[in-house]
Design a protein that fits this description.
mainly alpha; 3 strands
Length: about 290
């Protein structure tokens, strides 16, 4: 019986298997790159807004604080989009006839909301709490980038799960003193620009990060206030961090000078703040239920 397939068919079969494998791998790589691309993540894209609001002008030019517009960022799960009244606080007197601000005036006159396009938009199944991050030492620029240098707002980071997990697995690299949360130009400590931190008594009803006081100037050269007044529980008792002995009139005790620790690297500062801010360990921070509820 004559052979149906030529001897070369074996080579062709092997080659077809190899080509099939290459095509499958190439398809997988292509799909992976596609789901990471700005076409999917919208990273770097500047969506058209009803009003071309410039953060660069308002933040860097005029010096407005983030909280002036985003009033709920420290106490709510969302930062909040400012109501039209916030805009009209200034624009009832400034640029009152500008064509660019016609949507703002229309919203103020009719009571209709301005249809802003959300730039940092997470999926509905992701739970993100702004107040937790802000009160635990994550600066605005860590997620949103240098907003003060953006004429038009855009998404600097991908906001994908991989990006979030990179921080949750090692939060220390992004932690900063709470006094520097809104400082867009904050730089990590270095030999040339060290940071000094001290710890005071934890306060009831406020975030744990409030007990840490950090300075960018050497406290030994007049850069810090080193004493506060504390009320002891009994006359002559010593408050935490206070000197022992007799108290001044009225039972007030002047505590000893705060002890500051110098940090010259972000790793050292991050490790210190993780402990003082009571940050959960990476294993807990990267668990599924942290974000998916």
């Amino acid at each position: 019986m004559a052979q149906i397939f030529d001897r070369s068919s074996n080579a062709l079969a092997r080659m077809s298997l190899v080509l099939t494998g290459i095509l499958v791998i190439a398809l997988g790589v292509t799909l992976n790159e596609l789901q990471r691309s700005p076409w999917v993540t919208r990273q770097g894209q500047r969506p058209d807004q009803p009003v071309p609001f410039s953060h660069e002008h308002h933040v860097q030019g005029l010096g407005l604080q983030c909280q002036y517009c985003h009033t709920s960022v420290e106490k709510s799960s969302y930062a909040g989009i400012p109501p039209t009244k916030t805009c009209m606080n200034c624009h009832a007197q400034v640029w009152t006839n500008a064509d660019l601000l016609e949507p703002v005036r229309h919203s103020w006159a009719t009571g209709e909301s301005i249809p802003w396009v959300k730039v940092h938009d997470l999926p509905d199944f992701v739970y993100f709490n702004h107040s937790v991050h802000v009160n635990k030492g994550i600066g605005c620029a860590s997620c949103h980038g240098r907003v003060d240098q953006m004429p038009l707002m855009y998404e600097q980071n991908t906001l994908q799960m991989e990006w979030c997990l990179n921080c949750h697995r090692n939060p220390g690299k992004n932690l900063r003193p709470t006094s520097q949360i809104y400082n867009m130009a904050w730089k990590a400590p270095s030999e040339d620009h060290p940071v000094w931190c001290s710890v005071t008594d934890a306060k009831v009803g406020v975030p744990t990060a409030q007990s840490v006081n950090c300075l960018t100037k050497d406290p030994g050269k007049g850069g810090a206030t080193v004493a506060t007044l504390e009320m002891p529980t009994a006359p002559g008792a010593s408050a935490a961090g206070a000197t022992t002995g007799s108290s001044p009139a009225g039972g007030m005790v002047m505590p000893a000078s705060l002890t500051y620790t110098k940090f010259t690297s972000q790793k050292a500062l991050g490790d210190f703040l993780i402990d003082q801010y009571h940050i959960r360990p990476p294993k807990q921070l990267s668990s599924c239920e942290t974000c998916h509820r």
